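Ticket #479: bound-state structure for NAP.
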Amino acid sequence: MSTSAQIGVTGLAVMGRNLARNFARHGYAVALHNRTASRTHELVKEFGHEGDFVPTETPEDFVAALERPRRLMIMVKAGAPTDAVIQEFAPLLEPGDMIIDGGNAHFADTRRREKELREQGIHFVGTGVSGGEEGALHGPSIMPGGSKESYESLGPMLEKIAANAKDGAPCVTHVGPDGAGHFVKMVHNGIEYADMQLIGEAYQLLRDIAGYSPAEIAEIFRTWNTGRLDSYLIEITAEVLSQVDEATGKPFVDVVQDQAEQKGTGRWTVQIALDLGVPVSGIAEAVFARSLSGHTALREASRGLAGPKPAPLDKEEAAAFADRVEQALYASKIVSYTQGFHEIAAGSEEYDWNIDLGRIASIWRGGCIIRAAFLDRIRAAYDARPDLPSLLSDETFAREIGEAQDDWREVLAAATRQGVPTPGFAAALAYYDALRAERLPAALTQAQRDFFGAHTYRRTDRDGSYHTLWGGDRSEVRA
Ligand SMILES: NC(=O)c1ccc[n+]([C@@H]2O[C@H](COP(=O)([O-])OP(=O)(O)OC[C@H]3O[C@@H](n4cnc5c(N)ncnc54)[C@H](OP(=O)(O)O)[C@@H]3O)[C@@H](O)[C@H]2O)c1
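RESOLUTION: The complex was predicted; output attached.
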């Protein structure tokens, strides 16, 4: 067995296979391994001509095929299978070697694995990979965590296989220590859920209130894609909406069941945000909207409830309404990115990761599902002011959202009047208004908490904590 491979990939389903091919197409010798050996042989049979592959059948042969320090990439199902594979390979490795986990691991698992392997001198590089099957082959956005030392060895290879942004910069950076890469990938997916939900709401408003057909809406999305909403998700939405179902001749979107599934990273984004105390209401509404869509019995039982049915607008009004929806969509999108970046900043602070938010916006500009022209501007905002408290504190975004707000409110008013559900748009506007508010009803909440639980409150006019003797003479005491 030669020890010539610069990297090895174990787990050769769609993602692993395509990443292995991507490395090979960039001139790297790639050792291959999969629990079921037939996948390894199929890859070589079909794509062996693309580069230098070293197929192996046993973990021992796989490890022996790698040059030192070894770079071993795991692309298997997240969770227990990843632990099983680590347990299988780690005893065969030596200090200085690297295990790169490119699966969708929970960042807490990555922190645990990194710590355990560090004790053996092995670098564990939890790496977010976004872009699906096509991205893995042609250039994904890559979010590696782990030690700086491992990035020095691995980074140049990842930079070769990653997508390039329009300015040519590779969409990969050393995100930060231990679980930072998987954390950022998780938030990426949360933002992706929010983006998709907002696009879905825009579609439904254009369909039910403006009265446009899916093909007409596809054209509207195509136009939007030439402006500030230019993004992969808007582009594919136009493609999907213009698709006609061959079997029925109906718009394709009308023959797809309206129950959205999820694999879990969006849910994790919300769960972790709750733990960190970060309000990601737009992302949460996107997760809940998918969940609600799947409660078919509940929806069936509730379909007859009273409420308005939308009445489509005339042609001229519809065109004006579509412009308003674009404003509402853009403003809500600014809010969901604001919330996502807030979560990354909070995670970075909690775990001491020192994540550069501008770099994150930069590596999401190509390869990944949320790639968008918009991210260039987020990067510029953080580059200009790395300590930006929130994206909404950036002058340009603040101005744009300010300009959009009349239309945003109008769209939500119309949606509410006509009974079209818009949880994402509404949550985004509520967040915006809560941030703007001079006073929040949180004062009343604190007073209630003090009433029933003696939880105390702070006063606006004096320092210290206080409690009112609600059950007694209602005098105030210092707590
Ligand atoms: N699909 C995407 O768009 C996407 C995007 C980004 C990240 N990811 C992540 O990338 C990873 C790979 O995804 P995928 O869709 O290519 O494959 P997958 O369906 O998640 O996993 C299949 C692979 O895992 C292996 N495997 C499962 N259990 C195993 C075990 N106990 N021991 C050893 N190997 C085991 C399978 O081996 P056998 O062939 O022997 O069954 C196969 O190679 C996942 O963590 C996924 O979440 C996926």
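RESOLUTION NOTES: The beta strands are 7-10, 30-33, 53-55, 71-74, 98-101, 123-130, 141-144, 457-458, 465-468, 476-478.
TICKET STATUS: resolved
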